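Could you help me review a protein record that somebody else here produced? What it holds is a sequence and that sequence's fold in token form. I have pasted the whole thing underneath without changing anything:
=====
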Amino acid sequence: MLRTSRADRRRVASLGGMDLNTVLEVRDARQRTPWRTGDAWLGGGTYLFSEPQPHIRRLVDLSRMGWEPVQQLPDGSLEIAATCTIAQLSRFAATFRVPAAPLFEQCCRAFLASFKIWNMATVGGNLCNGLPAGPMISLTAALDGSCLLQAQDGSLRRTKVADFITGAGRKDLGAGELLRSVTLPARALTCRTAFRQVSLYGLGRSGALVIGAHDPLDGSLAVTVTAATVRPVRLWFPTPPSAAALRGTLARAVADDEWFDDIHGLPAWRRHMALRLSEEIRSELAHGPELTRESAR
């Protein structure tokens, strides 16, 4: 028999999708008990309840942790809780007055998901799934985000988002370790950004998603490629590179077996689109905003 509260049962039922008939217990994460084989963190649950999870015996529910979804810290950086939903992040971004703010909504829209997913799926869940097309991975890696990870003994460590995702569905997480939050540095929020996304279908999963961030303080340019690759690839240039330099750097940074291959796009197509979109972004951000506006007329 499943041991869970009435509130937990209502929450699980609201997700719909797959019944997890191997789960015997749903535990509140505020109740500290030893981690054991068969445990899984429950954030929004949109992935967990989307397909069979025969290895899971107990869900540890994070929904009552009370973490502030999004907050700007005194140093100007932005902390996004792992339990922050896509809807909460979108609402916050609508009133966030920084140059990089439009990128938040662009990445939220890259989900191409229903309102139900928007209101349940979490930023932390998207990162911890580690899927190449995860748009919260794209957003936080492009803005040089860092993950705050908490082990079962309470110890904390930080790692860059670009290093946290190590492959398709793979991430740098130990047994029972928890992604607590993602922090975006204040300087990254001042960047001019450019966004490009492509799919094989009009409303399909991203086949390539490329983001550029131009730093107004030192003139540097970061180009981040996701969806086309099995892991985020973030390239940093002290000044905007030439088209040939960008193409060569990206080609060297991604090994042949690191171009993602699934039903949503072949590796050769993903590579072609990543190179093409990266050049579009380089061209857009290599000019000042005034020149960009003039060229658009």
Summary: Confidence is low (pLDDT under 50) at residues 290-297. Residues 267-285 form the longest helix (19 residues).
